[in-house]
Amino acid sequence: MSDDIRNDGDDPSDIPQQADAETPKPPSRLELKVIQGDHIKSTAPTYEDVAYLAREFVLCTLPHSDPGDVRAWGRRNGDLTLTLKPGIRQDRQTGEYFSVGLPYGIIPRLILTWMVTEIRRTKSRRLELGHRFTDFLGKLGLSFYTGGGPRGDAQRVREQMERLFRSIISFEYEVRDGERRGQIWLDMQVAPQGEFWWSERRPGDGIDWVSWIEVSEAFYKAVMAFPLPLDVRVLRHIKDSSLGIDLYTILNREAFRAMSEGKPRFLAWEWLHQQTGNEIANLRLFRRNALVQVEAILAVHPGLIVSIVKGRKGQKSGLLISNLSEPSIPREVLPASAKPAGERPRNPNVRLVPKPAPLPPKDLKPGTVNEFRRLYPNLDPMACKKAFDAWLAGKGEEARPRFYDRAFMGFARKWIVGKLVVSNP
Predict the structure, then answer these.
(1) Residue 180 φ/ψ, nearest 5 degrees
(2) What is the value of pTM for the model shown?
């Protein structure tokens, strides 16, 4: 009897083996990243997806690698110079003073974005980090479950938090007025006050006291004056590269400026190298690394239209951002008080990206989408469709074409001019 039961598959020890055989294999980390990227690309951001970063941290970026035990570190972009000085602490055992080091890499960039976003949201200098360290890691898009070693997220965040909060950041502008020259500077400590009450052994457990920091008045004013909106989903998708984060913030800002001013924006490789990558001595190597990151950004930022300009006699090589580009956060998602500062009013007679009228939605046929991708493999058919629908909306319902897909392909032949997506020639 018992043999018959086992042969019928009723033995509990057999059931998990059968279930395991039928259970689909979970997606790999790379496959999951592709799925997440497709979702970001196809889903419009909401108000909850908006993050901010101060303009100065886009114009001059933080170090990518550890500068080491230095008194100061700097980067220059035109008339603006960024200087970082490390904070000082005292060793409790020896009584000697030592440098805590300078912030560098991915994590301080994520922390700064979170800080600026919280300041904009709360309108307060005091920022609460939470009762649990794991909760704060989640706010940065990081995880405690990456290992407790020196390369785990938790340990790196602890170190970079202290480096960033204790550091002195200086911005200096060179001002020219005819023959006269002047200097304007701002020295500020990021967080001169704060309390950390997280458990060392059990960071996932909550405690009665909340950890907090209070940013300096100078830092608060700088953040409130010139906020640049970002899509936090894009930021976290490319967070594996500090250069990628920098290029995303730069290209997103230039897309906004190109759209507002009605003309393309050009970024020479030399300028980008000075602005965000002067740790890489070789300009050609920087260019190669930057192009890899730009392609990753374009995969989740369909509104960005970038082309490569090859250097000629008397002309620099670099990137050209089309005036038909769109920032990753549409204007309608932002509250009126959060519009990027320094925006130039558009010419009312020029509508670069007309707002779509409430026309019935129309989908492209799969064959049309495939044909578009065959002809223009590096361009997004949905971005072209969005521009096409906006163009139709400006003409009204009476001008809606009888054959939508055929008219779309005709529009695409004009739309793609000057909109070659970045590739490494």
Answers:
(1) -90, 145
(2) 0.71
